[in-house]
Design goal:
81% of the residues lie in helices and 0% in strands. By secondary structure, it is an all-alpha fold. The chain is elongated. The protein starts with a helix and ends with a helix.
Length: 127
């Protein structure tokens, strides 16, 4: 009986730590070297950042579903929460960012990256 309540609590703790990781990963986009200049690029700001915010929310929701499930039999809610998290990660972070980079940025990289390059130059001059 105790294991039945501890396992969902441990899963909730794991998902809460994962949510914190997604939250902190959004700040790491500032150090990205993906674009034309060092720092957050068009893809990071307009594809990865919204995806990471969604993943943060879904991980917290999945953690809450694990805590709710601790008092009920079965695993329907945690499995649905983790499944939604995995699907959102694959689609949001992997697929969507690739599609934005490939079909929005690459055809007009100078135009899309211009504000980010200008900010990089300003920051370099200021330093």
């Amino acid at each position: 009986m105790r294991a039945r309540k501890r396992l969902p609590a441990l899963a909730a703790l794991f998902l809460a730590v994962k949510a914190a990781g997604y939250y902190l990963e959004a700040f790491e986009l500032v150090y990205s070297s993906r674009g034309a200049a060092f720092g957050a690029s068009y893809t990071d700001v307009y594809a990865n950042l919204p995806a990471l915010r969604l993943l943060w929310f879904l991980a917290l929701a999945a953690a809450a579903s694990c805590l709710i499930q601790a008092s009920r039999p079965g695993w329907r809610y945690p499995v649905a929460g983790v499944g939604a998290l995995v699907v959102a990660h694959v689609i949001g972070v992997q697929l969507y960012s690739y599609l934005v980079q490939r079909f929005r940025v690459v055809p007009n990289e100078v135009g899309a990256e211009r504000p980010f390059i200008e900010r990089d130059i300003q920051s370099t001059r200021l330093a």
